[in-house]
Design goal:
Helix 6 crosses helix 7 (about 200-205). The protein has helices at about 50-60, 75-90, 110-120, 125-130, 160-165, 180-190, 200-205, 210-220, 220-225, 240-250, 265-275, 280-300, 320-330, 335-345, 345-360, 360-365, 375-394; strands at about 45-50, 60-65, 95-100, 105-110, 170-175. It contains 17 helices and five strands.
């Protein structure tokens, strides 16, 4: 007997892939640690028809991509068809989550793949325009209960077309008036079930601005791919977060010291909300130059072990996010002559680095737990700077 398709089958929408060659670690994520006024949380739920959401899509009032939900249209034809079949069978869909901007436009927080499947079936041209895709019209395949095999939307009987267009779905909307820090935590809590959005996906959703394009440009660069051997995944924007971690540290300027008891998410959110909007083109150019200089220097100095908790002839460890940001930012600050000297004295660098990794200090412990915390970040920057100086003075 075939299994009945239910709304639960469409709740886990993203592809869950193991991170290849990037250490997961404990990055000390922020949740709500400080009190806030519940009156500041402005969330409303409302019923929307599929037809009204399609109209918003056509008028650029419902944003599916590009900034925080980059991978639209992940489902195959059969999975999309099963969702359409569920709608035709009047099986309720799970709620959608949107964020609202100051103009009343929506960005999809949760429900991207479901919406893409529905829009693909109803109006593939509108979806192609919105997601910069080249999809052909969706024809139903692999249905379990309805004899609608290989039918397109235009070929459905009018009652079935109307059933899709007039379907009411529940949408939870977080208004733009909700403070960004609170919104970030609310989004994280809303996404604790199933496969949640990553912190970077949430950050891209609620902190719009030119910073996203600049970060994406660096993450997509050949220089970044070469330095990391293309090992940093893009599906959950891990690459963007790694680049942003460098940018956030670099924005503090030397000695790149973070203050307070702030975790990683609070630090990155503060950066994109308060510091990066003030940057002009020249400031971004300087940041890019420092980034490219730093990642090249890391490879020159640490060789195949750049950004990794390994050294010398031992097996290469996965990329460590904390080492990535601290190595790149500290090396970017050194004169080119010093970088060349360090590269020539790589064995000395490995000796000193081994001592740091195996030692009892905050450097080694800060690479195992709480890696995104201010104290751990400061320890990495301080100890690496001292390491370089010891090798240069030898």
């Amino acid at each position: 007997m075939m299994k009945m398709t239910t709304s639960q089958d469409f709740q886990h929408e993203e592809i869950n892939e193991e991170i290849d060659q990037v250490e997961e670690g404990d990055i000390d994520r922020d949740m709500i640690h400080t009190p806030f006024d519940p009156a500041n949380v402005d969330i409303f739920d409302k019923k929307f028809t599929i037809g009204s959401l399609l109209e918003r899509l056509k008028h650029d009032e419902l944003l599916l991509t590009p900034d925080f939900q980059r991978r639209a249209n992940l489902w195959d034809t059969e999975r999309k068809s099963r969702l359409i079949e569920s709608i035709l069978l009047r099986i309720p869909l799970p709620s959608f989550y949107f964020s609202e901007d100051e103009n009343g436009n929506f960005e999809v927080v949760d429900g991207l793949q479901r919406l893409c499947a529905i829009f693909h079936f109803i109006d593939h041209a509108a979806l192609n325009r919105a997601t910069r895709s080249k999809l052909v019209p969706l024809r139903l395949k692999g249905l379990q209960y309805l004899e609608k095999e290989d039918e397109a939307f235009s070929e459905l009987d009018r009652p079935f077309q109307r059933r899709i267009n007039e379907l009411e779905v529940n949408v939870n909307v977080i208004r733009a008036t909700t403070p960004k820090a609170v919104m970030f935590n609310v989004f994280a809590r809303l996404n604790q079930g199933g496969l949640p959005l990553s912190a970077q996906e949430i950050r891209n959703a609620i902190y719009p601005g030119a910073w996203r394009d600049h970060v994406r440009q660096l993450a997509d660069s050949q220089e970044f791919a070469n330095a990391t051997d293309g090992k940093v995944p893009k599906d959950r924007q891990q690459d963007m977060e790694m680049v942003l971690r460098f940018i956030a540290l670099w924005s503090l300027e030397s000695p790149y010291e973070r203050t307070g008891d702030q975790g990683l998410d609070g630090f990155l959110n503060e950066t994109v909300e308060q510091r990066l909007p003030k940057w002009n083109g020249r400031r971004w150019e300087s940041c890019q130059e420092a980034f490219f200089k730093g990642i090249k220097a890391a490879v020159d100095v640490f060789g195949r072990h750049a950004f990794r908790k390994s050294f010398g002839d031992v097996a290469r460890a996965p990329i460590n996010r904390g080492l990535f940001e601290s190595q790149v930012v500290t090396l970017s600050a050194l004169p080119n002559a010093d970088i060349k000297t360090l590269a020539k004295r790589q064995k000395n660098v490995y000796q000193e680095f081994k001592a740091l990794l195996n030692g009892p200090g905050r450097f080694s412990s800060g690479l195992r737990s709480g890696t995104g915390h201010a104290e751990a970040s400061n320890a990495r920057v301080t100890e690496l700077t001292r390491l370089y100086q010891r090798v240069l003075d030898a």
